Amino acid sequence: MAQGTRVKQRGTVLMGSAGGMLVVAGGLAAAYHAVSTRSVAGAATRPAVTQKEGSRVTSSGKALAAYLATPIAISLGGKPAITTKTFAELGVEVDPEEVGRGGAADTAQDIASLAKKGSIPVRIDRDKAAKALGDLKQHFDMAALDAFLDLEAHEIHADAPGKAIDLWASMGHIEAAAREGFSTVELATVEVPARVTKTGIGIDEISQVMGHYVTHFSVADRDRNFNLKLAASKINGTVLKPQEEWSFNQHVGERSEKEGYKIAHVITAGEMVDGLAGGTCQISTTLFGAAFFAGLDIPKTTNHSRPSTYTPLGFDSTVVWPDTDLVIKNPYDFPVALAYRVANGEAVVEVLGKQRPFDKITFAREILEETPFNTEERIDEEMPDGLTSLDQGGFDGYKMTRYRRFFVGKKQVREQKWTVNYKPVTEYVRRGTNKDLNAKAPPVKELHGPKPPGNVGDKFEMSQ
Question: Is the confidence at residue 397, as pLDDT, over 50?
Fold first, then answer.
């Protein structure tokens, strides 16, 4: 991912009423050098302000204290003042080594005169200044904005750098402003790069829906719905670079209890049972449909062991961790993004990118063979004798050819075909054998055998 470069910006210092605009001699580096090299050995080694010169020293201290207590404006980035602080609050203090060297500092007029020479006898306490500037950072630092895909609006929002107060450089600005009597000080700032840049996202256009697909589910099955949303969340926002292959199992990962998946209906050996991560195959099937109509390559796909109720016969793709996978590939010379939404009984996938080079892509199927299903009886010793119930409806087996046809205008320019097989699904009937007249039937969920999805010779197609 491209990293933004850190760019330090030197703020300008504006002169107040004490004097005209002055440029700090030597720039920020010299100011900081002055702060770093000045003696900070402690109060015991610093010359104290005494009554050596009588009332003049006393008045000088009062004048400087009053100067340091005067509010000044604080600005950032050349913008209007963000707040006011006194020099004292910013860590500026009287420098006893400098008092009297550049001239008298007994009155405000004296201090104004010293300001013109940039020699007001003050210095900065770095510890106090760091604390004051740290407080300002908490309120006025601006975080960078990361680039992101607005998948619903089909837009890409660019990144924007943030801005942060540069503590150490700002100390030089503050001390220079205090020595020259400025009424405004502009703090130094540093640019903070975004963690995610538009370049780093890897795609520059998602304005076109190249292909989409929708499947439906019952909102009443909360655990299955939870699994749908969890798996879809791991796909939403995925970007496929040109010629990149993408694996469902590698990207979504293991569907385990540790990963948060719940028990719901799954198909195992052709039978609908409760199992962990039930519903994941609807997520893979919906993605398969969108990839199919977007014209993405599909190097690996496996249909279910029995037809699915939420998609047409022959248009499904099952996944089982870790071996049964759905693999898609971006064949285009531009990247594409996957947008996945699961809500209100719908699973919706869109493949977003540039204009699709085909005017129409068609799914077609033709049933070649049909194999009737068998019926098996399950004995239940607790059910009253002669009572029966349908545990699972049977499905006939099918062999068919699936086609994908690509059109430019009305002309077919390409065709792909697959052989798709569904094994017959056994019907299970439960029969009671308990001859006790007081035997009560346990609660049984009524299931009804599905209608046959098709007959030999049937053809079906849909296009986008």
Answer: yes
